[in-house]
Structures are given as structure tokens and as C-alpha cells.
């Protein structure tokens, strides 16, 4: 049953249209190079419209994997495919695993605190997630390759892609957790001091330090870099012709790169350039 006739799941014509438009997303991100306004995370602002950070992340990021799963279950029937092969489910599975971590586990269970976000950020991220999921879902649930033979013929590339995807995801999680540890440590200290003084413990919201472990020794946004490696591996699983995978990677890089450079400027202002000890924003030794 279609949720929106012709769009969810998408007809071939509408899917092709979305893929064409989605390839132009980097044009929108040029605004991030000239505007410093990014009301979320480190650069969040005080606004009465703000959304709670954890709820905001969970809701905006869940839209992608839920949409993808819906298309995986609805589109094959519409185009007369009785069962999708394992290769298609491998791509969907990797995507869902990533977003179960990013949209559910990280904000709702793991992150000690998250800054509030402006609804503008939520709307942009929600739109990104839905458009991206339609682009990817259309390909892997019906309009891209859907035969066992196709996947069997490129199993070596899939294996290498899966290994890269997996290391990228683990790296992303490791560096995310290094940031969490900063606030967990601050929380432990504040609990200890509260116990000694008999006063209530202060919140750890907005406590920042320079992360130092793993690739953070070289770049301030090591978690971003690992996420790019992860999605590059995922594109490889799908193959050179998997254009929604390529667009996803390019779109992520074009929005996260200016954000990382803005983050570096923020670190320089808060801690001083000398404290960063030559760390780059996101690509070791380069940017
Ligand atoms: N931002 C994007 O455009 C984007 C796009 C796609 C995927 N992602 C992925 O989503 C994840 C989160 O992205 P993000 O942009 O929100 O990352 P982020 O700004 O580095 O924040 C991640 C979390 O760590 C906290 N944090 C950040 N820097 C800290 C520091 N120096 N000391 C202590 N705590 C710190 C943040 O708290 P506050 O919220 O209080 O700042 C937040 O809870 C990353 O793994 C990234 O790869 C991001």
C-alpha cells in the first residue's frame, strides 16, 4: 500500500527525478561556506523555538532508515519482484545498522547531553534523510540490480566494501565515544564534588574539551572522517553504478566539510590556536 501515491514508494519516473535533483544538493551547502549561522551543537543559540537536542536528533535521523525500510517492503510488490536478493538486503542492513546507532542508541541512550537545536536544522536534516532514503530505496528495492547473479559476480568487491564500511562505522563510534567520555568524566567529577559539598551536582551541558585520543590527535572531527570512510565502503559494496550511494557520500562530505572547518574556527576561538597543536579540521595534514 502506497503512503503517497507515486512518491512513497516512488514510481520509476519520480525516483529518477528525485535522484537528478538530489545530485544538486552540494549547491545548497555553498551557503555553509559563507554563513556562520548553524544553530546546533557547539554553535547552538538560545531561542524559544529550540528543540531538545536528544529528541531532535532521534526524530530527524530516524526518518531515513524508517523510510528506507518502508520502501524495501513496499516497492518490490509494486514492480513485481517476489523477493529481493541478499545483496540488496546487505546494503539496506548496513544503512539501518548505522542509523539505529546514530538515531536511537547515540542520542537516547549513550550521549550524556546534547545541545538544543533550532527547528531550521531539524527541518533541513529531516528533508535530507527522507530524500536520501527515497534515492537509495528506489535503487536497492527495485530500480537498480535485483538479481542474485549480479551480486554473485562482484562478491570480492562487496567483501572489501563491507570491511571498509565496518571499520568506518567502528571508527565513527570510537571517536563519538571519546567525545562522550569528556562529559562522563566531567559528570563523575561533579558528582564527587557534590557529594563532598552536599550541594546538588551541576549539569554537564555545554562542557567542551579538546579531544585527544585516536585520530583526534591529528584532526578535530575524526568522527566525521570515519563516517566518510564508512559510506565510501558502502558505495563500494553497491558498486560503481550505485549512484545513490555515491550521491549520499558526496552530499555528506559537502555539508560536513564546511561544518568541520567552522568547528575548527570555534575550537581556535575557545581554546586558542596553540592549544590545538597543529590539528586540522577533518583530513589529517591537509584540511
Ligand atoms: N553535523 C552533520 O552535518 C552530520 C551529518 C551527518 C552525520 N553526522 C554524524 O553525526 C555525529 C554527530 O555529529 P555532530 O555534528 O553533532 O558532532 P559534534 O558537534 O562533534 O557533537 C557530537 C556530540 O559530542 C559532543 N561534543 C562535541 N564536541 C565536544 C567536545 N569538544 N567536548 C565534549 N563534548 C563534545 C556534542 O555535544 P553538544 O551537542 O552539546 O555540542 C554532541 O553530543 C557524528 O558522528 C557525525 O559523523 C553529522
Task: Describe, in short, the structure shown.
This protein has 287 residues and is mostly helical. Helices cover 67% and strands 0% of the residues. The model has no long low-confidence stretch (mean pLDDT 97).
Structure report:
The chain crosses the membrane at residues 55-75, 87-110, 122-145, 157-174. Belongs to the steroid 5-alpha reductase family. Residues 120-287 form the 3-oxo-5-alpha-steroid 4-dehydrogenase C-terminal domain. This protein is an all-alpha fold and 287 residues long. It is 67% helix and 0% strand. The protein is built from nine helices and no strands. The protein has helices at residues 12-22, 25-34, 53-78, 86-110, 119-143, 148-152, 155-197, 222-238, 243-271. Helix 3 (53-78) packs parallel to helix 5 and helix 8 packs antiparallel against helix 9 (243-271). The longest helix has 43 residues, at 155-197. The mean pLDDT is 97. It binds NADP nicotinamide-adenine-dinucleotide phosphate. Residues 41-42, 53, 102, 111, 113-115, 172, 176, 179, 182-183, 206, 208-209, 211, 223-224, 227, 252, 255-256, 259 line the site of NADP nicotinamide-adenine-dinucleotide phosphate (NAP).
Descriptive labels:
287 residues; mainly alpha; binds NADP nicotinamide-adenine-dinucleotide phosphate; SRD5A/TECR; 3-oxo-5-alpha-steroid 4-dehydrogenase-domain-containing protein
What is the subunit organization of this protein?
single chain
Low-confidence stretches: none
* Beta-strand percent range: under 5%
Number of strands: 0
Structural class: mainly alpha
- Tell me, what's the shape? globular
Could you estimate the helical fraction of the residues in percent? 55-70%
Which ligands are bound?
Answer: NADP nicotinamide-adenine-dinucleotide phosphate
Pattern of helices and strands: HHHHHHHHH
Radius of gyration: 21 Å
Q: What is the rounded distance between the termini?
A: 47 Å
| Total helical segments | 9
Largest sheet: none
Mean pLDDT: 97
Transmembrane segments: 55-75, 87-110, 122-145, 157-174
Family: Belongs to the steroid 5-alpha reductase family.
Protein name: 3-oxo-5-alpha-steroid 4-dehydrogenase-domain-containing protein
Membrane topology: Multi-pass membrane protein
Amino acid at each position: 500500500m502506497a503512503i503517497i501515491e507515486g512518491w512513497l514508494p516512488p514510481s520509476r519516473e519520480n525516483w529518477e527525478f528525485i535522484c537528478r535533483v538530489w545530485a544538486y544538493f552540494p549547491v545548497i551547502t555553498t551557503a555553509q561556506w559563507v554563513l556562520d549561522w548553524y544553530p546546533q551543537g557547539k554553535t547552538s543559540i538560545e531561542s524559544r523555538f529550540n528543540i531538545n537536542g536528544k529528541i531532535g536528533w532521534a526524530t530527524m535521523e530516524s526518518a531515513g532508515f524508517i523510510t528506507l525500510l518502508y520502501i524495501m517492503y513496499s516497492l518490490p510488490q509494486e514492480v513485481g519482484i517476489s523477493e529481493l536478493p541478499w545483496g540488496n538486503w546487505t546494503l539496506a542492513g548496513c544503512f539501518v545498522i548505522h542509523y539505529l546507532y546514530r538515531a536511537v542508541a547515540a542520542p537516547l541512550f549513550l550521549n550524556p547531553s546534547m545541545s538544543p537545536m533550532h527547528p531550521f536544522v531539524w527541518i533541513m536534516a529531516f528533508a535530507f534523510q527522507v530524500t536520501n532514503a527515497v534515492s537509495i530505496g528506489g535503487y536497492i528495492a527495485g530500480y537498480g540490480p535485483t538479481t542474485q547473479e549480479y551480486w554473485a559476480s562482484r562478491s570480492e568487491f562487496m567483501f572489501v566494501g563491507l570491511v571498509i564500511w565496518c571499520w568506518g562505522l567502528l571508527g565513527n563510534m570510537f571517536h563519538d565515544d571519546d567525545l562522550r567520555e569528556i562529559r562522563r568524566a566531567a559528570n563523575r567529577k561533579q558528582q564527587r564534588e557534590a557529594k563532598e559539598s552536599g550541594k546538588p551536582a551541576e549539569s554537564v551541558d555545554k562542557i567542551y574539551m579538546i579531544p585527544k585520543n585516536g585520530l583526534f590527535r591529528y584532526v578535530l572531527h575524526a568522527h566525521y572522517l570515519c563516517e566518510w570512510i564508512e559510506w565510501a565502503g558502502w558505495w563500494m559494496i553497491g558498486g560503481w553504478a550505485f549512484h545513490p550511494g555515491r550521491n549520499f557520500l558526496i552530499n555528506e562530505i559537502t555539508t560536513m566539510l564546511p561544518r568541520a572547518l567552522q568547528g575548527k574556527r570555534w575550537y581556535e576561538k575557545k581554546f586558542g590556536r596553540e592549544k590545538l597543536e597543529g590539528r586540522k579540521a577533518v583530513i589529517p595534514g591537509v584540511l
